[in-house]
Amino acid sequence: MIRFILSKLLYLVPTFIGITIVAFGFIRLLPGDPVLLMAGERGVSPERYAVIAEQLGFDKPVWQQYLTYLGNLLQGDLGNSLVTKRPVMDEFMALFPATVELAVVAIILATLIGVPVGVLAAIKRGSWFDQISMTGALVGFSMPIFWWGLLLIIFFSGYLGWTPVSGRISLMYYFPDVTGFMLIDSLLSGEKGAFTSAVSHLILPSVVLATIPLAVIARQTRSAMLEVMGEDYVRTARAKGLKPSRVIGIHALRNAMIPVITTIGLQVGVLMAGAILTETIFSWPGIGKWMIDSISRRDYPVVQSGLLLIALIVMVVNLLVDLTYGLINPRIRHK
Amino acid sequence: MSLLNIRNLTVRFATSTGAFTAVDGIDVRVDKGEVLAVVGESGSGKSVAMLAVMGLLPDTATVTADEMTFDGQNMLAMSPRQRRRIIGREITMIFQEPIASLNPSFTVGYQIEEVLRFNAGLGRKAARARAIELFDAVGIPEPEQRLKSYPHQMSGGQSQRVMIAMAIATNPRLLIADEPTTALDVTIQKQILDLLMKLQEDSGMALILITHDMGVVAETADRVMVQYKGHKMEESDVLTLFENPQSPYTRALLSALPENATGDRLPTVSDFFKAADAQIAAEGGAA
């Protein structure tokens, strides 16, 4: 097991270096100059420009800037934001719980709905439930997040008035940050109605963020179940005279979950990408919105280090998925 | 009274090109404690007929019969729930591919204890103790340790022993063995067959042995049923079948045995297809 983890960790090293190159390079490919943007409409004199560029290290050749960035990274220094001057890590840690909260709720929602829908669609293959749910999944998968989010806001917030339009909690409530997770903090605060407000703020963004993973999980579960249901060991389970619920829920599902868990893990990357759009639509103060704002400000350190941190999270989650895969698939575990 | 009695069993599959009849009006009778061999080439419908009895065919299959009784109980009139009281308890089945027939995600111990807990009504501890006894009975060494193994950690022969242990766990009255040795090495084939026959003799259960190996038939069966293209070509006791085969198809199967070779070239079953097809046509015409 330890060798398995170590071999997986070794893979992370080249991936990590690749991401630093991409993160560093892409933001510099964008047109726009951070120094000019900082100066704003007043502009800046060439002399002053040279001083600022030197302070920020932009006067050096790009490869030298990259090596400095990499050197700092290895010492745990992600740099400071050009705009707020605060360390990128501090900003990230302050905003990260909001994104995690949204992403976790979204993936739980997608799994709790997607897996049963996929199982049911497989069992009732060709039925109206199968047809409707799989068509729905295709529509969900194809739905542009931005448009889907706006549509939900217009209907549920605008027309029906059931949910708030944006933010994490109503301005009526104020309580200290304990965990950074609004659902937990609102409960800890003991303020009446705070938790309900946090939940109502979370519903639409998490539904929007869950839509694509839900569609993918439902379709993957269906196809995995269909494959597994034709296996000899499922026939054996039926030959034992076991109840259909046990044959499907224990014997088939356990095996069908192996590819589904991989899919769920891969959705974390999709969630991070989706969070950027979802947080922008719902003004959700998480790292997605922070990244978008930083890109428009050409805040190089924030973008390159933020991207790196997001990529690290995806890598760690994928590693965890690999480990879980070994847990539920004994053939992998015993290799 | 026979233990299993089936009259006019027909199984049709809905396919994209129309209905396909896999089993066409066969009768099956098995008496208590009897060993019935069902022989025929691949695609003759021998497995499908038995899967129909077990209720294990996919939804695309339509099973009809004039009569299907087990120990006098009408299986055709049973609800799925009533049927499950017989299937897996009174009638059990083992299959051709033992490793694929065991669930790769659970230990073999879990899989046999499941039978003991749900079908024999034992508690966890009693199920474990009985599982060890059963593994011992089917010749699995170090049964306590082996219970913790996953199917991929066992050989084909051992997996089939596990399948047999599961199948006899409830002291069934009928065991259907669907080509139980086809996927195994020749030396292991003999061991598994000997084991099956010993268990059958000890317990007095009836055994339906599906096979295409006439050698196996000669060694084990009391009675033989020969199937071809979903039809029953012949049924008789084992001695009569080998000494005086009636159907051209049975003669084909027997003459294709290397030990029966007379000329330079070993005849194949296909040499006799015309005669066999004529027999089916004649029976169809008579009906």
From TrEMBL, chain A:
<feature type="transmembrane region" description="Helical">
    <location>
        <begin position="307"/>
        <end position="328"/>
    </location>
</feature>
<dbReference type="GO" id="GO:0071916">
    <property type="term" value="F:dipeptide transmembrane transporter activity"/>
</dbReference>
<dbReference type="InterPro" id="IPR000515">
    <property type="entry name" value="MetI-like"/>
</dbReference>
<dbReference type="Pfam" id="PF00528">
    <property type="entry name" value="BPD_transp_1"/>
</dbReference>
<comment type="similarity">
    <text>Belongs to the binding-protein-dependent transport system permease family.</text>
</comment>
<feature type="transmembrane region" description="Helical">
    <location>
        <begin position="102"/>
        <end position="123"/>
    </location>
</feature>
<feature type="transmembrane region" description="Helical">
    <location>
        <begin position="9"/>
        <end position="30"/>
    </location>
</feature>
<dbReference type="InterPro" id="IPR045621">
    <property type="entry name" value="BPD_transp_1_N"/>
</dbReference>
<keyword id="KW-0812">Transmembrane</keyword>
<protein>
    <submittedName>
        <fullName>ABC transporter permease subunit</fullName>
    </submittedName>
</protein>
<keyword id="KW-1133">Transmembrane helix</keyword>
<dbReference type="InterPro" id="IPR035906">
    <property type="entry name" value="MetI-like_sf"/>
</dbReference>
<keyword id="KW-0813">Transport</keyword>
<keyword id="KW-0472">Membrane</keyword>
<keyword id="KW-1003">Cell membrane</keyword>
<dbReference type="GO" id="GO:0005886">
    <property type="term" value="C:plasma membrane"/>
</dbReference>
<feature type="transmembrane region" description="Helical">
    <location>
        <begin position="198"/>
        <end position="218"/>
    </location>
</feature>
<feature type="transmembrane region" description="Helical">
    <location>
        <begin position="264"/>
        <end position="287"/>
    </location>
</feature>
<feature type="transmembrane region" description="Helical">
    <location>
        <begin position="135"/>
        <end position="162"/>
    </location>
</feature>
<feature type="domain" description="ABC transmembrane type-1">
    <location>
        <begin position="96"/>
        <end position="321"/>
    </location>
</feature>
<dbReference type="Pfam" id="PF19300">
    <property type="entry name" value="BPD_transp_1_N"/>
</dbReference>
UniProtKB/TrEMBL annotation, chain B:
<keyword id="KW-0547">Nucleotide-binding</keyword>
<keyword id="KW-0067">ATP-binding</keyword>
<dbReference type="InterPro" id="IPR050388">
    <property type="entry name" value="ABC_Ni/Peptide_Import"/>
</dbReference>
<dbReference type="GO" id="GO:0015833">
    <property type="term" value="P:peptide transport"/>
</dbReference>
<protein>
    <submittedName>
        <fullName>ABC transporter ATP-binding protein</fullName>
    </submittedName>
</protein>
<keyword id="KW-1003">Cell membrane</keyword>
<dbReference type="Pfam" id="PF00005">
    <property type="entry name" value="ABC_tran"/>
</dbReference>
<dbReference type="GO" id="GO:0016887">
    <property type="term" value="F:ATP hydrolysis activity"/>
</dbReference>
<dbReference type="InterPro" id="IPR003593">
    <property type="entry name" value="AAA+_ATPase"/>
</dbReference>
<dbReference type="GO" id="GO:0005524">
    <property type="term" value="F:ATP binding"/>
</dbReference>
<feature type="domain" description="ABC transporter">
    <location>
        <begin position="6"/>
        <end position="254"/>
    </location>
</feature>
<dbReference type="InterPro" id="IPR013563">
    <property type="entry name" value="Oligopep_ABC_C"/>
</dbReference>
<dbReference type="InterPro" id="IPR027417">
    <property type="entry name" value="P-loop_NTPase"/>
</dbReference>
<dbReference type="GO" id="GO:0005886">
    <property type="term" value="C:plasma membrane"/>
</dbReference>
<dbReference type="Pfam" id="PF08352">
    <property type="entry name" value="oligo_HPY"/>
</dbReference>
<dbReference type="InterPro" id="IPR003439">
    <property type="entry name" value="ABC_transporter-like_ATP-bd"/>
</dbReference>
<keyword id="KW-0813">Transport</keyword>
<keyword id="KW-0472">Membrane</keyword>
<dbReference type="InterPro" id="IPR017871">
    <property type="entry name" value="ABC_transporter-like_CS"/>
</dbReference>
<comment type="similarity">
    <text>Belongs to the ABC transporter superfamily.</text>
</comment>
<dbReference type="GO" id="GO:0055085">
    <property type="term" value="P:transmembrane transport"/>
</dbReference>
